[in-house]
Amino acid sequence: MTSSTTTGRTTVEALALFAALLTTFGELHPACDHWVQGSTTARCKRLYGSHLVYRDGTAADPDQPRPGAAVLTASARGRQAAASHVASYTAVQVGAALAVTRALGYRIPTTALLAGTAVNALTHAALDRGALLLWVADRTGKRGYLDHCQAARLGADGTVTAEINGPGTAWLSLDDAAHRAIGVTAAAVTTWLAVRKGRRHSAR
Questions:
Q1: What would the DSSP string read from start to end of the chain?
Q2: At what angle do helices 110-129 and 131-139 cross, to 10 degrees?
Q3: Do residues 117 and 91 make contact, with C-beta atoms less than 8 angstroms apart?
Q4: Which of 13, 128, 132, 170 has the highest CB neighbour count under 10 A?
C-alpha cells in the first residue's frame, strides 16, 4: 500500500470520526441540560455567597429551622450542584460517544476519549457556574444582550419577576452557543489523538 493511499485512508477516518463525535456531542448537549439535569441542580448551580442555604437552594432561616436538614454555604451548594450536573452530563456524553463509534465499528483509544471528555467537562463546569460566562460577556460586548433579553416568570401568587438566565433568555442562548463551540474543540482533540495513536500502531 502506498503512503498516499494510507494518508488518504487516515484522512477519511479522521473526518468520519470527527463528524460522528461532533454530532454526538452537539446533539446530546440540549438533552443533557434539559432532560438529564434535575431542576434543583439547575436552580442551585449558580449560587454564590457565604450565607447558609438548604440543599434545595432556599436560604436557611434560624428562626424556622428544618430539623435534620443539611445546611451549607451558597457557594458550596453551587459547586456541589455544578459538579453533579457535569458528572451526569459527562456520563451521557461518554456513553453515547462509545456506543455510536463502536456500533459503527470504531474503537476510540481511551486516552483520546479522556482528553476530549476533559475539554468538555472542565469548560462545562466553568461556564455553568456563571462567573466565567459573565466575564466573557463583559469583554465581548454581550452584557447588554444578557441584560435586555431576560424572561418574565409568573409566580404561583401572580407575582411577575425578571429572570436573567433560564429558558427564553440571552444567557441560555450564549451558554448553549459556547458549549457547542467547545464541543468542536473536544471532537477535534479526541479525533487528532485517536488518529495519531492509530498511525503509531500501523507504523510498527
A1: --HHHHHHHHHHHHHHHHHHHHHHHHHHHHHIIIIIS-HHHHHHTT--SSSEEETTSPBP-TTS--TT--EEEHHHHHHHHHHHHHHHHHHHHHHHHHHHHHHTT----HHHHHHHHHHHHHHHHHHHHSHHHHHHHHHTT-HHHHHHS-EEEE-TTS-EEEESSSTTSHHHHHHHHHHHHHHHHHHHHHHHHHHHHHHHHHH-
A2: 80
A3: no
A4: 128
Task: Please name the residue that has the C-alpha cell 483520546.
Answer: 112
pLDDT in tens, 97-146: 999 999 999 999 999 999 999 999 999 999 999 999 999 999 999 999 99
Report pLDDT digits (tens) over 172-199.
999 999 999 999 999 999 999 999 876 5
Cβ–Cβ contacts within 10 Å for residue 86, how many? 22
Between helix 110-129 and helix 74-103 the angle, nearest 10°, is 150
Verdict on whether the full-model pTM lies above 0.85: yes
Q: Give the separation between CA 66 and CA 52, rounded to whole angstroms.
A: 13
Determine contact, residues 55/87, Cβ cutoff 8 Å: no
Q: How far apart are CA 154 and CA 161, in angstroms?
A: 7
